[in-house]
Design goal:
The complex is a heterotrimer. In chain A, helix 6 crosses helix 7. Chain A folds into 2 domains: 191 residues, D-Maltodextrin-Binding Protein, domain 2, CATH 3.40.190.10; 144 residues, Periplasmic binding protein-like II (D-Maltodextrin-Binding Protein, domain 2, 3-Layer(aba) Sandwich). The N terminus of chain A is likely disordered. Chain A has 15 helices and 12 strands. In chain A, strands 1, 2, 3, 4, 5, 6, 7, 8, 9, 10, 11 and 12 form a 12-stranded mixed beta sheet that branches. By secondary structure, chain A is an alpha/beta fold. Chain A starts with a helix and ends with a helix. Chain B has 2 domains: 225 residues, Rossmann fold (3-Layer(aba) Sandwich); 60 residues, Beta Barrel (OB fold (Dihydrolipoamide Acetyltransferase, E2P)). In chain B, strand 17 and strand 18 form a beta hairpin. The longest helix of chain B has 18 residues. By secondary structure, chain C is an all-alpha fold. Chain C folds into 2 domains: 64 residues; 219 residues, MetI-like fold (Orthogonal Bundle), CATH 1.10.3720. Chain C has a two-stranded antiparallel sheet with strand order 1-2. The two termini of chain C are 15 Å apart. Classes of the chains: A alpha/beta, B alpha+beta, C mainly alpha. Chains in contact: A-C, B-C. At the A-C interface, helix 1, helix 3, helix 4, strand 8 and helix 8 of A face helix 2, helix 4, helix 6, helix 10 and helix 11 of C.
Chain lengths: 354, 385, 299
């Protein structure tokens, strides 16, 4: 009977998420050769260069140090985690996800709480949470095309980003309420420390003022493309993506002024088969050295102040983690979003298609 | 009903596919109401000729005259020809009545008249009660009737039949042979049929044109084709025949016939051959004599007959109303002979027998005719039948 | 029918019981090769369907119609459903218009090479990853893309035209992706249409266009139906192409379903999935009723 239910729900989830055309694919790969008796770990990550950097910076050294064999699976898939837990078929031990989603999933009972007996490293308190341990940071920033604009002529804060009169042109904006509503409120003059709970009416009213100038993006790689090709003049984009594109020679740059920091976080699905190893892995990944090694390889910020301290000034500046920059940035309130995401997203969608 | 058929004349039509010549100056003619069959094996060019008459293919050269008007440049849909396809080509999404009415609809015949004419023709071809059926719900014979009705309902001056009975079983074939012939005669519709079936050609046609390698070998009435083959190909193609080599030793004209004395290997004395005065005679020595098996007899009742020879029976097969007997002659040739059961029984056990044939039962075939008419082509890739 | 009668029964009668036994065994094997996958499909389908139906009606507090009330009353869900269906209709029509002539030409081509070129030309993109094709369209359609540059070079337009992030871009790329399905469906149907029928029509006096309308077109209706059904049903599940090439207006049901799955609202996702499924069944039902009345040649 139990098996029957497992199968049912798995199929339901598969049928619904894959949709009728089926668009997602996943791949599993074992990262290295070490095969100690210390056990195993299945780690789910987003894939791409992000995961490549993570394997070099964290996974391989972890395997060497502990003898635990790590299987890396991509991509992180929320719906799949939900169905695994609901059907008691959890195969994953650690997943990298958005921290606010981790809080949300934890509250709903889909995650194991962090074991702070094993995880002793201290990171930014905003992202050291009951069910989530912060990992890297990506920041929603103002980006622009450097062929057309420079640091002086491009919008330098959200108020200017929302000022279509003095800054005409198309704005590429994330088709998702997270950080977009914050940006709207900051633009409308709400001080950073009074941002939460979000004044939704005010945020949507502000968004209305630039709705016609917005080109929406859904995948992180899109904004730098849109800027390079001229589809957009400015963008609300993720810092890591813009930095990568810029370093590869695309004519894009950004300002961290007003940046809204989203932490990615480590979570452990309910009934993870290798719970102890999972906590060991999270502890290892959170340590200053691991986070530093990761940030050196790929331009994502660190949630560990000691890791930031290891960076030289150039790197700090590139990641928006110098103290001057941080003064004008704000952490996303993960708890607010965990509580309100479903409702706000629905309202956002309704606003979009209205 | 008055005759609707018009005369058709194919005048020196040639067809090339690249360097390959499928038709070589083909000419033939059918008078109004005549039933003409083009008979040939696959690759003979007969299907190509049919396609050119129908307008599916353009002739490389030559004219097609229907009632004196050259239609060679016209499209198929402008020629107003009727055609019965080998697999009927009935429209599967239309009923019997709709199929038959289709060509009338195309001609903008008023609705009432269409109904009337469809009803008439359905009676004529005995498909009453089947009007509302779809082709798939009909038997093979019924499908053919329906297709025939559709091909003639608009009174085309010319009807083309493409292997009309090829898809039917034997009993049905006989029935339909007579049926098609009956309707064709009744309507007086000029018909050109293309087939590889000799029996079909012999029973249905007023005129048979034998075709081989893109060339018409002979166009004659069925009787003449059988009795007076113009060349070796025709002689061998129609029925079975015995060909005997010979040398003409003398030739004379008598009151009602040509008489040739031909020395053969059958016997020491020359064979006497009588042929009608109308038949062309050539001044040549080497000939073939064509003798049908049923015209060779045992010497039982006519001792001392003129054209006689000795033969040894190699084997015999009982065929019901006759024995088919293989006979070896003195010079080692083998001949096919048909012998009645009574005669055969009478001489049972005797190996060596004397045979004869009448002088007016032999056709001479001249080397010259062979040379002129036969043109050997290895393969015709465009003739798919 | 005929084959069964002579083949199966005949063997048993002719060779007696032992062979009959063997034949029965063999046929069991033969049947099981069909039945096992069939059973598997049926079971998984039924099980997953039961699960989805249950989820859409049973919330945390037991039976409820809330999810359905929501998707049938809130403008967001109505609008997105409408978008999804409209996109499907446009894409289906575009696929049909493009694939029909191509399929016709490929079937009627005298030279096998022509046929292979047409078929290959349409099918080759099928083997290229969907994402790659979507990105290709982004490059072609963007403001400084090939099309805009050509238009501006030819002075057809002075300002670049906004192609990207419009319904047009979504439909173009979905048409491109789904075209092979339509083409193959039409082609396999058209191959079954006897070429002699068109010839027969022309002998009877039908000009090519008239013969096509009276004979070929009606006989190709089953292919049109199955092609349209397949393309339309597949189009309902698209979300990557609308997300990457479309604007906010091009939100599709699949996007909403996925978002709700991520937001622990699988009940609403189930209700939306069922809504789509019922729509598909209704369309199928209508289509089969319609096609059932048309005589379909079996070949």
């Amino acid at each position: 009977m139990k098996k029957f239910r497992k199968m049912t729900a798995a199929l339901v989830a598969a049928a619904m998420t894959a949709g009728l055309a089926g668009c997602s694919g996943s791949s599993g790969s074992s990262s290295s050769s070490s095969s100690g008796s210390a056990g195993e770990l299945v780690f789910v990550d987003w894939g791409g260069t992000n995961t490549d950097a993570r394997i070099e910076a964290i996974v391989k050294p972890f395997e060497e140090e502990t003898g635990i064999k790590v299987t890396v699976v991509t991509p992180s898939d929320y719906a799949k985690l939900i169905s695994m837990v609901e059907n008691n078929t959890t195969e994953w031990d650690v997943m990298n996800c958005d921290a606010y989603w981790g809080v949300y999933a934890g509250e709903k009972g889909y995650l194991e709480p962090m074991d702070y007996n094993v995880i002793t490293t201290k990171i930014d308190e905003e992202v050291q949470l009951e069910y989530v341990m912060g990992a890297e940071i990506y920041t929603s920033v103002i980006a622009y095309n450097t062929d057309k604009y420079n640091a002086d002529t491009a919008p330098s804060d959200w108020a200017e980003f929302f000022d279509t009169e003095n800054y005409p042109g198309k704005r590429a904006v994330w088709q998702y309420p997270v950080t977009v509503l914050e940006a709207a409120l900051l633009a409308d003059g709400v001080p950073m420390d009074e941002l939460y709970p979000l004044d939704l009416d005010r945020a949507f009213a502000k968004l209305d003022t630039i709705k016609d100038s917005i080109v929406w993006w859904t995948k992180g790689a899109e904004p730098s493309q849109m800027l390079s090709t001229g589809e957009a003049d400015y963008a609300l984009a993720w810092s890591g993506r813009i930095a990568t594109a810029r370093d590869e020679g695309s004519p894009v740059d950004m300002t961290y002024n007003g940046g809204i920091m989203i932490a990615a976080g480590w979570v452990v699905p309910k009934n993870a088969p290798n719970l102890e190893n999972a906590m060991k892995f999270i502890e290892y990944a959170s340590e200053a050295k691991s986070q530093y090694e990761f940030s050196v390889r790929i331009p994502y910020g660190s949630t560990n102040p000691e890791a930031v301290a290891l960076m030289d000034d150039d790197l700090k500046h590139e990641l928006g983690q110098s103290s001057e920059q941080l003064a004008n940035e704000i952490y996303l309130d993960n708890t607010y979003w965990a509580e309100n995401l479903a409702e706000v997203e629905e309202r956002f969608n309704a606003w979009l298609v209205a | 009903m008055s005759a609707i058929g018009q005369s058709i004349k194919i005048d020196s039509v040639s067809k090339f596919y690249g360097n390959f010549q499928a038709l070589d100056h083909v000419s033939l003619e059918a008078g109004s109401g005549e039933f003409l069959t083009i008979l040939g094996s696959s690759g003979s060019g007969k299907t190509t000729l049919l396609k050119i008459i129908a307008g599916f293919e353009a002739a490389s050269d030559g004219q097609i005259l229907i009632n004196g008007e050259n239609v060679a440049h016209k499209k198929a849909y402008e020629r107003n020809i009727g055609m019965l396809f080998q697999n009927y080509a009935l429209f599967p999404h239309m009923t019997v009545a709709e199929n038959i009415a289709y060509p009338l609809k195309l001609r903008r015949v008023p609705k009432d008249e269409i109904k009337e004419r469809v009803n008439d023709i359905i009676k004529l071809i005995k498909l009453d009660g089947m009007e509302k059926r779809f082709p798939k719900q009909l038997s093979g014979g019924q499908q053919q009737r329906c297709a025939l009705a559709r091909a003639i309902v608009y009174n085309p001056p010319l009807l083309l039949l493409d292997e009309p009975l090829g898809a039917l079983d034997k009993n049905l074939r006989h029935e339909m042979q007579f049926e098609i012939k009956r309707i064709q005669k009744e309507l007086g519709i000029t018909t050109i049929s293309v087939t590889h079936d000799q029996e079909e050609a012999l029973t249905m046609s007023d005129k048979i044109c034998i075709m081989s390698h893109g060339v018409i070998q002979q166009c004659s009435s069925p009787e003449d084709i059988y009795k007076e083959p113009h060349n070796q190909f025709v002689a061998e193609f129609i029925g079975s025949t015995n060909l005997v080599k010979g040398k003409v030793v003398s030739k004379s004209k008598e009151s009602d016939c040509w008489v040739s004395m031909v020395q053969t290997g059958l016997s020491d004395t020359p064979i006497r051959v009588e042929e009608p005065l109308g038949k062309r005679q050539y001044n040549m020595e080497d000939v073939l004599l064509a003798i049908r098996p049923e015209l060779i007899h045992l010497m039982k009742d006519r001792p001392g007959h003129l054209n006689s020879f000795m033969g040894e029976i190699l084997n015999s097969v009982y065929m019901g109303d006759y024995y088919r007997v293989l006979v070896r002659t003195a010079d080692g040739n083998e001949l096919n002979v048909k012998i009645s059961p009574e005669a055969f029984d009478h001489y049972a056990g005797q190996k060596k027998l004397e045979f004869f044939f009448n002088a007016n039962c032999v056709t001479t075939i001249y080397e010259r005719e062979k040379g002129v008419m036969l043109k050997l082509v290895e393969h015709d890739p465009n003739d798919l039948t | 029918m005929k084959d069964n009668k002579t083949g199966f029964n005949g063997d048993i009668n002719a060779h007696g019981v032992p062979l009959a036994h063997r034949v029965a065994k063999l046929s069991f094997l033969k049947w099981s090769t069909v039945l096992v996958p069939l059973l598997f499909i049926a079971l998984t389908l039924v099980i997953s369907m039961v699960g989805i139906i249950r989820k859409s009606f049973v919330g945390a507090d037991g039976f409820t119609l809330d999810y359905y009330i929501k998707i049938f009353t809130e403008p967001l869900y109505i609008k997105v459903l409408f978008n999804t269906l409209l996109t499907g209709v446009i894409v289906t029509a575009a696929c049909l218009l493009l694939a029909y002539p191509a399929a016709y030409l490929s079937v009627r081509a005298k030279k096998p090479l022509v046929r292979r070129l047409i078929t290959g030309g349409i099918l080759v993109p099928y083997w290229i990853s969907m994402l790659v094709r979507i990105f290709a369209w982004q490059i072609i359609l963007q403001t400084n893309g090939v099309i805009n540059q050509a238009l501006m070079f030819l002075h057809i337009t002075e300002e670049p035209i906004q192609f990207l992030y419009t319904t047009g871009a979504v439909c173009i790329s979905m048409t491109h992706i789904l075209l092979p399905y339509m083409f193959l469906s039409l082609q396999s149907n058209m191959e079954g249409i006897d070429a002699n029928l068109s010839t027969a029509a022309s002998v009877m006096g039908a000009k090519p266009a008239r013969g096509f309308v009276d004979v070929f077109l009606p006989l190709s209706v089953p292919g049109i139906f199955s092609g349209c059904l397949m393309v339309f049903v597949l189009s309902l599940g698209f979300y990557i192409a609308p997300a990457l090439l479309g604007g906010a207006d091009n939100m599709m049901m699949s996007n909403l379903i996925e978002q709700n799955m991520n937001n622990f609202n699988s009940n609403l996702a189930a209700a939306m999935s069922l809504e789509l499924l019922v729509i598909v069944f209704v369309i199928l039902g209508i289509a089969f009723r319609f096609v059932g009345n048309i005589f379909v040649p079996k070949k």
